[in-house]
Design brief:
Blueprint lengths: L3 H8 L21 E3 L4 E3 L1 E3 L4 E8 L22 E3 L39 E7 L9 E7 L20 H7 L5 E5 L4 H4 L4 H6 L4 H16 L5 E11 L1 H11 L12 E5 L12 H7 L7 H7 L2 H13 L21 H6 L7 E7 L17 H8 L5 H11 L5 H24 L4 E6 L30 H17 L21 E7 L5 E7 L2 H7 L1
Parallel strand pairs: 2-5, 7-8, 7-9, 9-10, 10-11, 11-12, 12-13
Antiparallel strand pairs: 1-2, 3-4, 4-6, 6-8, 13-14
Helix pairs in contact: 11-12, 11-13, 13-15
Enzyme class: hydrolase
InterPro entries: AB_hydrolase_fold (IPR029058), CarbesteraseB (IPR002018), Carboxylesterase_B_AS (IPR019826), Carboxylesterase_B_CS (IPR019819), Lipase_GDXG_HIS_AS (IPR002168), Type-B_Carboxylest/Lipase (IPR050309)
Family: Belongs to the type-B carboxylesterase/lipase family. Belongs to the 'GDXG' lipolytic enzyme family.
Length: 531
């Protein structure tokens, strides 16, 4: 395993790239203006939607220099009117593991930078219907947290065609919500683990960024026509995993409350270790380096980003090196334990999973050759042989070894955590399944961010208005009323039932290409595998 000091010395000889800032544009005298106290921003009127939007507003100070790996701080006040017309710079990102074997065994997602990546990236976007200054009754608020394995993603999506456009959410809510899309530190910048980080910095910096943004919403959303008492947090993939972290944060006793409800799309919950467990410490190769954190704070950001990418790629295929840890303060125990004890924030929950969550994260080049027990041992490097064999027996009836492996990845990391989450909100939770073929991870995203209908590369988009409305409106109806059956506009979706009755809503299509939206009963065998 490489030494961080040796690697940094080696990388120092590499050519680094400069930061490129999005050019500021002069504000128009007709632009909507909002005064946040520390800054005044000029938004813009979106003529195609009729909505007002403020893009790239700073919610925290730049987490650079001495603030690297520290809790987010309030922005420094600035004078004048700042333009909020452009998507913000993305945070520096890395990728998923690419190795056939995990380096942590104990004895694609697409990524891009639509605007130049920067360490100074703690910004958010706010979208409001019509004229926010003439909204007579404050509206419910939806705060969207992007996914990307805690390694990539941004407020503007993964590529130039799939931005997380809050205007879509407003349209699906029939002009009934204010939408907020946030960014947070990711990769080594947001989730550096280890004892030294605990002593001389802050663990889970990316989660604390999100928490800080939620506090910003409480302080400022009324200025945009939003009701801080009716906030729903919604995330996809690692964004949904982030939602879980906020649900269990501070033993479920966050006070004052920062949200009333939660939505998870593909809840991403990989193994969550204690900050000083062997795996997170080994993953950064800093366990024996003195004063490594202070050293890393002085490192040029471009060199550190190179390290970020290299370390991110050493993980087992489809996994991510930098993820949340149990820090003992914000996250006090492993999430599954908190969910079992029903120590959660919030009043209600809506969760959706995709039929084949795991396929995207399994190496296709080894799928036909790797043995199921070997795969389990690589995915869960701390478990013993008896547990490995027990898990293999549970999946023996799923089908071919390839199907078993895809099932293990998808159920262990995404689907099973969702059912623990549903149980934690007994009588107050709803469950949906996105089953439009191929039903892979992320295939659902274009159906609620509908500005772009291409979907993922090679995945056809089911461009049926009745289906799109049935699926997307359920999320927004829930955000507005805590009940997806209380429809803002008529759809083909049948009534939802609280999940503790074991009933879900399947969103699929028939072989002839018609929408097929109907109740299903949760598989008993699936729930047994999740135990």
């Amino acid at each position: 395993m490489f030494s961080t000091h040796r690697l940094l010395h080696f990388l120092a000889n590499f050519l680094t790239w400069p930061l490129v800032w999005a050019a500021s544009t002069p504000t128009d005298t007709s632009d909507p203006i909002v005064n946040l106290g520390y800054a005044t921003y000029a938004g813009s009127f979106n003529r195609s939607t009729g909505h007002t939007q403020f893009l790239g507003m700073r919610y925290a100070a730049p987490p650079t220099g001495n603030l690297r790996w520290r809790a987010p701080q309030a922005p420094t006040p600035v004078s004048g009117i700042l333009p909020a017309h452009l998507e913000p710079s993305t945070c520096f990102f890395t990728g998923q593991g690419e190795q056939a074997k995990t380096p942590f065994r104990m004895v694609g997602l697409n990524k891009r930078d639509p605007f130049s990546p920067s360490e100074d990236c703690l910004f958010l976007n706010v979208y409001t219907p019509v004229d926010m200054f003439n909204i007579k009754k404050k509206l419910p608020v939806v705060v969207f947290i992007h996914g990307g394995g805690y390694a990539s993603g941004s407020a503007s999506g993964f590529n130039g065609m799939d931005a997380y456009d809050g205007n879509d959410l407003i349209l699906e809510a029939n002009q009934g919500v204010v939408a907020v899309v946030i960014q947070y530190r990711i990769g080594v910048f947001g989730f550096l683990p280890g004892s030294e980080v605990k002593r001389n910095g802050v663990l889970n910096a990316g989660l604390l960024d999100q928490h800080f943004a939620l506090r910003w919403v409480q302080d400022h959303i009324t200025k945009f026509g939003g009701d801080p008492a009716r906030v729903t947090i919604w995330g996809q993939s690692a964004g949904a995993g982030s939602v879980i972290q906020h649900l269990i944060a501070q033993d479920g006793k966050t006070n004052p409350p920062l949200f009333r409800a939660a939505i998870t799309s593909s809840s991403f919950l990989p193994s969550q270790y204690k900050y000083d467990d062997p795996i997170p410490e080994v993953s950064i190769s800093c366990s024996s380096v003195n004063d490594s954190l202070e050293c890393l704070r002085q490192v040029n950001v471009n060199i550190l980003e190179t390290v970020n990418n290299l370390v991110g790629s050493i993980g087992f295929f489809g996994t991510f090196v930098f993820v949340p840890v149990v820090d003992g303060t914000f996250i006090t125990q492993r999430p599954i334990k908190s969910l079992q004890e029903k120590k959660v924030n919030g009043e209600a929950l809506l969760s959706v999973t995709n039929t084949f969550e795991g396929a995207l994260f399994v190496d296709p080049t080894s799928l036909s050759t790797i043995k199921v027990p070997d795969y389990i041992s690589q995915l869960f490097p701390t478990i013993g042989q008896r547990e490995i064999q027990t898990a293999a027996i549970h999946y023996a009836s799923v089908g071919s070894s390839a199907n078993q492996i895809i099932g293990i990845m998808g159920e262990a990391i995404f689907i099973c955590p969702t059912y623990y989450l549903l149980r934690a909100f007994e009588g107050r939770s709803f469950k949906g399944e996105f089953a439009i073929p191929p039903g892979g991870h992320g295939n659902d995203v274009p159906y609620y961010f509908t500005s772009t209908k291409q979907g993922q590369a090679g995945v056809p988009f089911f461009n049926d208005t009745d289906f799109i409305n049935a699926f997307s409106h359920s999320f927004l109806d829930f955000a507005m009323t805590l009940d997806p059956s209380k429809k803002s506009v008529p759809t083909i979706t049948p009534p939802w039932h609280a999940w503790d009755e074991g009933v879900e809503i399947s969103f699929n299509k028939t072989s002839s290409g018609s929408p097929d939206v109907h109740p299903i009963t949760t598989s008993r065998k699936l729930l047994e595998r999740c135990e």
